[in-house]
Amino acid sequence: MKITKDLYQGSLALLTDFYQLTMAYAYWKSGKSEQEAVFNLFFRKHPFQSGFTIAAGLEYVVDFCNNFTFNEDDLSYLGNMKNSDGSPVFVPDFLDYLKEMKFSCDIDAVEEGTVVFPHTPLIRVKGPLIQCQLLETALLNIINFQTLIATKAARVVLAAKGDSVLEFGLRRAQGIDGALAASRASYIGGCSATSNVMAGKLFGIPVSGTHAHSWIMSFDTELEAFKAYADAFPEKCIFLVDTYDTVNGIRNAIEVGKILRENGKEMLGVRIDSGDLAYFSNIAREMLDEAGFPDAKVVASNDLDEHIITSLKIQEASISVWGVGTKLVTAYDQPALGAVYKLAAIKNKEGVWEPKVKVSQQSIKINIPGEHQISRFLRNGRAVADMIFLQEDVDNKSSVMIIDPIDSTKRKRLNLGDLEEYKLLKPIFKAGQQVYVCPPIEAIKQNTKDNLQCFDKTHKRLTNPHVYPVGLEENLYQLRTDLVFKMKNYDQE
């Protein structure tokens, strides 16, 4: 699927921060543009105080990289940029370099729908320094948002405890791009359908919707409106019952439901969009059951999120379908994931890879150096721990020690003989050529479900979740420690 081509009909190479281009120019001018480097994209904290995060956005990344090129309009725009003294920001030879540049990086990534944790790379980019740098902003833009929304959706779906969750957020989303990406990510996170018709077309997501209050208000009476809607959509009748009086609305829906049944059709349910949802849903369930409609669903909407749904579940609300909009697609309680993209290694003039570390007074901001992989260990299908490691340091070992990257007192010994090992980073591009086939969105959604089932319910609690063990293999931990001391010029003796 050519996502960016479908949406924009052109190059997205300028979807970047200006400093990426100034660095690219400086790399080129200093002769470093083709020097090989490794960058990792990762996040430092779970969003929403969650115990897990759902990776999403890789298909957008694949499409972006496949179409990564600077076209004539891009180069003309860059060529017209001037410094304060009137000289060009970018000289013509550099623009010619960009014109001829062909994407040639290796990219390894965690598959969409995978449960991921802080500090573990979601994407690893290896290739010419200038190309790695120019990819940063777009990759962060894509992965940050879709991963955030997929995680929010997964939490909402967990709160619904098996009930269907519909994503209704298009009208409240942050623009066209945000709405489409949010619909896609919400489906990956576990939603059953979207109201967003364009997302349905582009991504193959089921679409869902009934009618608004305006439909009811356009008729003289609510009953007349329900009858007209039933005449238009006898197979898909879910009536919005709270325009005037909710109880009377349910009564009118039942009357039209009986007319439908006489014609061989069945009313699917009623929707409540305001008021005390626990109270009115229970009244609706009681009235529908007494009238002979036990299979009719009670659908609820109205600024729902995982916390409100949990509360309604505790109150034993008779709701079986949840329409979730604003608080899902805007990630209402945390509007950004905060993923970062850091240089982890660079090849020196002698052709030797040198690990790189960013030092900070905040230990959480010290990155993990080197080109590494992530292994997930499972016992009888249950996730035990994730390990970040340099491949050569764990080959042929019977056990490993993993150390928390933030708190070195948190350590865990893993006996590998009784564990299944699953490597999370998969090859996506080799030398600029796509080697990974993006799965259908239904398969990605199933991957989310399968991944979550591997984790204990304590890791999936919506509040105060149990912390899942993720650590650096001890040699990698020591490498990072040594590099930090070196960069700070500390004497370790």
TrEMBL record:
The catalytic activity of this protein is classed by the Enzyme Commission as: 6.3.4.21
Q: Describe how it is modified after translation.
A: Transiently phosphorylated on a His residue during the reaction cycle. Phosphorylation strongly increases the affinity for substrates and increases the rate of nicotinate D-ribonucleotide production. Dephosphorylation regenerates the low-affinity form of the enzyme, leading to product release.
Q: Where is the Nicotinate/nicotinamide phosphoribosyltransferase domain?
A: 167-349
Q: Which reaction does it catalyse?
A: 5-phospho-alpha-D-ribose 1-diphosphate + nicotinate + ATP + H2O = nicotinate beta-D-ribonucleotide + ADP + phosphate + diphosphate
Alphabetized UniProt keyword annotations: Glycosyltransferase, Ligase, Phosphoprotein, Pyridine nucleotide biosynthesis, Transferase
What name is this protein filed under? Nicotinate phosphoribosyltransferase
Protein's job? Catalyzes the first step in the biosynthesis of NAD from nicotinic acid, the ATP-dependent synthesis of beta-nicotinate D-ribonucleotide from nicotinate and 5-phospho-D-ribose 1-phosphate.
Any one GO molecular-function label of the UniProt entry: glycosyltransferase activity
Q: Which residues form the Nicotinate phosphoribosyltransferase N-terminal domain?
A: 14-144
- Which segments constitute the Nicotinate phosphoribosyltransferase C-terminal domain? 372-480
Query: What family does this belong to?
Result: Belongs to the NAPRTase family.
UniProt keyword Phosphoprotein, yes or no? yes
The pathway this protein participates in, as annotated, is:
Cofactor biosynthesis; NAD(+) biosynthesis; nicotinate D-ribonucleotide from nicotinate: step 1/1
